[in-house]
Amino acid sequence: MPSPKGPPELKHLDHVLVTPAAIKRRIAGLGVQLNHDYASKDMMVVAIVNGALIFAADLLRQLSSPLRLDCLRASSYHDGTKATHEPRIVDQMKLDVRGQHVLLVDDILDTGKTLAAVAGLVRSKGAASVRTCVLLDKKGRRQVPFEADYVGFDIPNEFVVGYGLDFNERYRNLPCIGVLKPKYYAG
Q1: Active site residue: 58, 107, 110, 137, which one?
Q2: What is the 3-class SS of 17-46, one letter each residue?
Q3: Which fold, 8-74+88-184?
Q4: For position 93, what pLDDT does the model report?
Q5: What pTM, to 2 d.p., does this model score?
Q6: Per-domain residue ranges of the chain
Q7: Can you say how many angstroms the Cα of residue 52 is from the centroid of all Cα atoms in its chain?
């Protein structure tokens, strides 16, 4: 039976950067912004999975505009802690984005390469508009000139996990955003 203090992986964190309560409040705020901005538009949400899965699910519950949902899978880390090369689109969207107002949802804007590539792909398929919403923005690692339209939290250049973010597919289930102790990813 799990400990009442939360998942055992919490002990792997150096410190908590964003609490569950802060995440919940900020997602509600993002929902208000998005409901205002998309009030007269049908929107299509495209979640970049696996990382954005938890964030996208909670964000969708805040939205009142009619919407369609699709997912795509992009990868740039490949079992490491640093983006090693250009992002790969591993699994394409299934819905047609032509003429749609698309909101791309991702867990973190880091180097900018993945979101820039995905936004370019969606634009090339004829979307009426493309905006981006990220839970975390790590400006200190940006390698391409790309900014998200909606940001949950600006964070420092630390290795974070939880609330969908992972290291080697672990820690996604943590209810907070935490900085992983180096001994769990170094070496």
Answers
A1: 110
A2: EECHHHHHHHHHHHHHHHHHHCCCCCEEEE
A3: Rossmann fold (3.40.50)
A4: 85
A5: 0.90
A6: 8-74+88-184
A7: 4
